[in-house]
From TrEMBL:
Residue stretches making up the CRAL-TRIO domain: 96-257
Protein name per Swiss-Prot or TrEMBL: Clavesin-2
Its job: Required for normal morphology of late endosomes and/or lysosomes in neurons. Binds phosphatidylinositol 3,5-bisphosphate (PtdIns(3,5)P2).
Assembly description: Forms a complex with clathrin heavy chain and gamma-adaptin.
Gene name of the record: Clvs2
UniProt cross-references to CDD domains, sorted A to Z: SEC14
PANTHER family reported in the protein's UniProt record: ALPHA-TOCOPHEROL TRANSFER PROTEIN-RELATED, CLAVESIN-2
Keyword match ATP-binding: no
Annotated stretches, region: Disordered: 293-336
Length: 336
């Protein structure tokens, strides 16, 4: 075992060897091969290329050198392309702080039976008057940055549970193509974390409709790990034991305290509130939060449930990467 594996338990070391192809005898060579590829992308500023940092990308891609490098490149490219997102990228930033305190994200105290960290999101907690969806994404990315420092989580990964109870249509209408694309690129394509499962519970019809639209743009591996449980918490319990879940998910533990993870990140600054104006945020919020049409979403959901009528779903809205702002502002779902 090298010093780079010092934080791993014997069980996790064996898991890394069997599942991730991690070999202590070739670890430094593996890291160097990824580092040597940096010169092939002079257009990207690789701000970190130290051993420990590159290792998390190798683990995320099961020690396939090129795939690990591609993820590393996408990590920094995403940050270059979304500079405003990463200005004041710290827990005390007012927008991030408000999102954290409302449980975006939350983290359960107990790991699951595979050693994975369980993240939870209670979607209805989003207060649109206090912070934006972009702030929520920033808070999630910042939290993952902190958690991924743990080598055990680099190997074992994460599980995410999203509770959509009481998430309104008005809130859902903010999930525009540009916002969804920003989240997919940031979490699926550009971050060195292994997600073993993403669980939707209590999702309304309009969330199911939106998922149907974005599903083709998710990687096959990601699609296989998304579970739509609806109100059937028994199916959730078959995958995550109720003994470690709070009561909101039909578990045996007390209700989840939304401020648990925020207090970990903020410490003594948790109670120091400052004013934050969502309209002052420098991201193109007007573009990202343009509302969808309730009529079009309802029509689409009806079609998906077997109606004979036809709706036109514009998947290219998610696919466009370099089109104008006007194109990105179009509704995700539209009708003939």
């Amino acid at each position: 075992m090298t010093h780079l594996q010092a934080g791993l338990s014997p069980e996790t070391l064996e898991k890394a060897r069997l599942e991730l192809n991690e070999n202590p005898d070739t670890l430094h060579q593996d890291i160097q091969e990824v580092r040597d590829m940096v010169i092939t992308r002079p257009d990207i500023g690789f701000l970190r290329t130290d051993d420990a940092f590159i290792l998390r990308f190798l683990r995320a891609r099961k020690f396939h050198h090129f795939e690990a490098f591609r993820l590393l490149a996408q990590y920094f490219e995403y940050r270059q392309q979304n500079l405003d997102m990463f200005k004041s990228f710290k827990a005390t930033d007012p927008g991030i702080k408000q999102a954290l305190k409302d449980g975006f994200p939350g983290g359960l105290a107990n790991l699951d039976h595979y050693g994975r960290k369980i993240l939870v999101l209670f979607a209805a907690n989003w207060d649109q008057s206090r912070y934006t969806l972009v702030d929520i994404l920033r808070a999630i990315l910042l939290s993952l940055e902190a958690m991924i420092e743990d080598p055990e989580l680099q190997v074992n990964g994460f599980v995410l549970i999203i509770d959509w109870s009481n998430f309104t249509f008005k809130q859902a209408s903010k999930l525009t193509p540009s916002m969804l694309r920003l989240a997919i690129e940031g979490l699926q394509d550009s971050f060195p974390a292994r997600f073993g499962g993403i669980h939707f519970v209590n999702q309304p019809w309009y969330i199911h409709a939106l998922y149907t639209v974005i599903r083709p743009f998710l990687k096959e591996k990601t699609r296989k790990r998304i579970f739509l449980h609806g109100n059937n918490l028994n199916s959730l319990h078959q995958l995550i034991h109720p003994e470690i879940l709070p009561s909101e998910f039909g578990g045996m533990l007390p209700p989840y305290d939304m401020g648990t993870w925020a207090r970990t990140l903020l410490d003594h600054e948790y109670d120091d509130d400052s004013e934050y104006n969502v309209d002052s945020y420098s991201m193109p919020v007007k573009e990202i939060e343009k509302e969808l049409s309730p009529k079009s979403m309802k029509r689409y959901a009806t079609d998906q449930l077997g109606s004979g009528s036809q709706s036109v779903v514009d998947p290219t809205a998610l696919k466009r990467m370099d089109k104008s702002e006007e194109e990105n502002m179009q509704p995700l779902l539209s009708l003939d």
